[in-house]
Design goal:
By secondary structure, this protein is an alpha+beta fold. The chain is built from 12 helices and 20 strands. The protein binds flavin-adenine dinucleotide. Flavin-adenine dinucleotide binds next to helix 2, strand 14, strand 18 and helix 10.
Length: 448
C-alpha cells in the first residue's frame, strides 16, 4: 500500500538573509534535474539537515546521501539568525529563559553535546574564529527590570552549579563601546557563529560525501518500500527520508495544530567607516543577549571576507500560523529596531540599516521537539523552540541515529520528551498569543 503526501506549502523567506548577503557569492549547488536514487534523502539544509547529513555520513559507509533545500542554502532561517549557540537553558516561553532544574540539566547536556558536534565540524572544515567563536555569551541589562532578570538567572545558575561572572557598567562599556548596559552576565559555554558562513562551510565540507541540491522544494512524497519524492524538475527514490524542515513539517501533514510559527526580525547596518568604528570604540566583535527574553539582541562583527564592520539588532516576535510574513510586517518593526539602535549607539547617529529581514521559528506549547519516526523510514527533526543552531543540530544528529542505529543512550535521553501539546483553536490562539507578545514587549520597556 502506498500513501501520497502532497506538500501544502513550500517556504517563503521575507527580506534578505543579512548574514548571507554580506558574504562573497556562495558556491551554487545544482537544482535537481531528472530522476535519481539514493539510500538517504535529507530534506532541508538548515542546522538540522546539515547535522543529519553529517551524522549519516559518519554512521554509514558506502550508502548514498542526498540533501535538498527548497531555496539556496543559508537563505532560510539558518542564515537569518543571530548566531548564538547557547549551552544553557534558553526557553523563550519562560520569563527568565530558565526551566525546572532536572529538565535544565538534561537540556544543558544535550546542548553541549550538539555544540561539540558543531565544533568538530568547524575544526574539520577549517572554520575561522569569525565563523565559529567559542567566546561564551553575555546577557546584558539596561534597566532595573533587566537587572532583576539577571539576578534571578544567577540564582538558577548557582543551583545548577554553572560558572558565571558579573560584568559591571564600566566593563560593559569598555567591551561594547556603549554605556547602555548597566550590568552583564558572562557564561563561558556558548559559541557565537556567523550563521550563514557556518552553513556554507559545513555544506562545502559535507559535499565530498553528500550530493546537495538547492532550489529543489519537495512538493509531494509517495510512501512505499522505497519513498518517491517529487520536486519541480526531478524525483528522488530513497529508502529513508529525514525531514529537517522545521515548522514546514506541518506542510507535509504532520503535527497538525501542535506547532507555533513565531517570527522574529533583524536589521543590520551598512559597513561602518573607520571613523564610526573609532567613535563607537569597544571590541571589534561582541554580542549581547537581552536579559529580558522580549528585549533586543545586539551583535557587532568585524570584517570577514569583505563583509565590513557592522552592527545588527534583533527584536520583536509575531505569531503567524500561515508560516509566512509580508514585506509590510518587516516594515512594521523598523521603528522598534531603529529605537533600539539609537538608544544603544547615539554615537552612530545617521548610520543607516542596509538589510532588514524576518525569519521563522517553530515552537511547541510545551517547548518539546517534533521528533521521531512518523511513517516507516520517514523521520522528523523539527521544532527547535527558538534555539535551532543547537537544538536543530541535536535533532538532526538524533534523527540519523534513530534511523541507522535505532537506539543509543543519547537518543533515549533526547526521546524522553513529551509530544508537542495540542494548541487552542483559532482565532483564539493567534489573537491571544499576539496580544500576549505585545504585552510582554511593552513590559520589557527599554530592554526592547
Ligand atoms: C532573526 C532570527 C534570530 C535568531 N537567533 C537565533 C540564535 O541566536 N540562536 C539560535 O539558536 N537560533 C536563533 N534563531 C532560530 C534559528 O534560526 C532556527 O531555530 C533554526 O534555523 C532552525 O533550524 P532548522 O534546521 O531546524 O530549520 P531551518 O533553518 O528553518 O531549515 C529548514 C530548511 O528546510 C527547507 N525546507 C522547508 N520545506 C522544504 C521543502 N518542502 N522542500 C525542501 N526544503 C524545504 C527550508 O528552505 C530551510 O532551509 C533565530 C531566528 C531568527 C529568524
Amino acid at each position: 500500500m502506498t500513501r501520497t503526501i502532497k506538500v501544502s506549502k513550500t517556504p517563503k523567506d521575507t527580506g534578505p538573509a543579512g548574514w548571507n548577503q554580506i558574504l562573497t557569492a556562495a558556491r551554487a549547488y545544482p537544482q535537481l534535474q531528472g530522476d535519481i536514487q539514493a539510500d538517504w534523502v535529507v530534506v532541508g539544509g538548515g542546522f538540522a539537515g546539515i547535522a543529519a547529513a553529517r551524522r549519516l555520513s559518519q554512521l554509514t559507509q558506502n550508502e548514498s546521501i542526498v540533501l535538498v533545500d527548497a531555496n539556496r542554502l543559508a537563505e532560510g532561517p539558518a542564515g537569518r539568525n543571530s548566531g548564538f549557540m547557547i549551552d544553557l537553558p534558553h526557553d523563550l516561553n519562560s520569563e527568565t529563559y530558565a526551566g525546572a532544574q532536572d529538565e535544565d540539566r538534561k537540556q544543558i547536556h544535550l546542548n553541549r553535546t550538539a555544540i561539540d558536534f558543531a565544533r568538530e565540524m568547524a575544526q574539520e572544515f577549517g572554520m575561522p574564529k569569525q565563523v565559529f567563536d567559542p567566546c561564551g555569551k553575555v546577557t546584558g541589562a539596561g534597566s532595573s527590570r533587566g537587572e532583576k532578570h539577571i539576578d534571578s538567572y544567577i540564582k538558577h545558575l548557582e543551583i545548577l552549579g554553572e560558572s558565571h561572572r558579573l560584568m559591571d557598567a564600566a566593563e560593559m562599556k569598555r567591551w561594547t563601546g556603549t554605556d547602555f548596559y548597566s550590568k552583564g552576565l558572562f557564561t563561558p559555554g556558548a559559541v557565537v557563529i556567523q550563521p550563514a558562513a557556518f552553513i556554507r562551510m559545513a555544506a562545502e565540507g559535507l559535499s565530498k560525501r553528500v550530493d546537495i541540491y538547492e532550489n529543489t522544494p519537495v512538493t509531494a512524497m509517495e510512501l512505499g518500500s522505497e519513498h518517491l519524492l517529487t520536486t519541480p524538475a526531478g524525483r528522488i527514490r530513497a529508502r529513508n527520508v529525514i525531514l529537517a524542515v522545521n515548522g514546514h513539517i506541518q506542510s507535509f501533514g504532520f503535527f497538525p495544530r501542535q506547532l507555533l510559527h513565531v517570527f522574529t526580525y533583524a536589521s543590520m547596518t551598512r559597513k561602518l567607516s573607520r571613523d564610526e568604528q573609532q567613535r563607537l570604540g569597544g571590541a571589534a566583535d561582541w554580542g549581547v543577549l537581552p536579559a529580558d527574553p522580549m528585549g533586543t539582541t545586539v551583535r557587532r562583527c568585524s570584517d570577514f571576507m569583505g563583509s565590513g564592520d557592522r552592527v545588527t539588532v534583533r527584536n520583536r516576535f509575531t505569531l503567524n500560523q500561515s508560516m509566512e510574513i509580508s514585506e509590510r510586517e518587516v516594515a512594521g518593526v523598523i521603528r522598534a529596531h531603529d529605537k533600539a539602535f539609537s538608544a544603544r549607539f547615539p554615537m552612530l547617529e545617521g548610520v543607516e540599516m542596509e538589510h532588514r529581514w524576518g525569519g521563522r521559528l517553530c515552537l511547541s506549547w510545551n517547548s518539546v521537539p517534533a521528533f521521531g519516526e512518523l511513517e516507516e523510514r520517514v523521520y522528523s527533526a523539527a521544532c527547535q523552540n527558538g534555539l535551532g543552531t543547537v537544538k536543530g543540530t541535536m535533532s538532526g544528529m538524533m534523527a540519523a541515529e534513530l534511523a541507522v542505529k535505532g537506539s543509543s543512550q543519547l537518543l533515549d535521553e533526547f526521546r524522553s520528551y513529551d509530544k508537542p501539546r495540542q494548541l487552542p483553536p483559532e482565532p483564539f490562539l493567534s489573537v491571544g498569543a499576539n496580544i500576549n507578545l505585545r504585552w510582554k514587549e511593552w513590559l520589557a520597556g527599554v530592554e526592547l
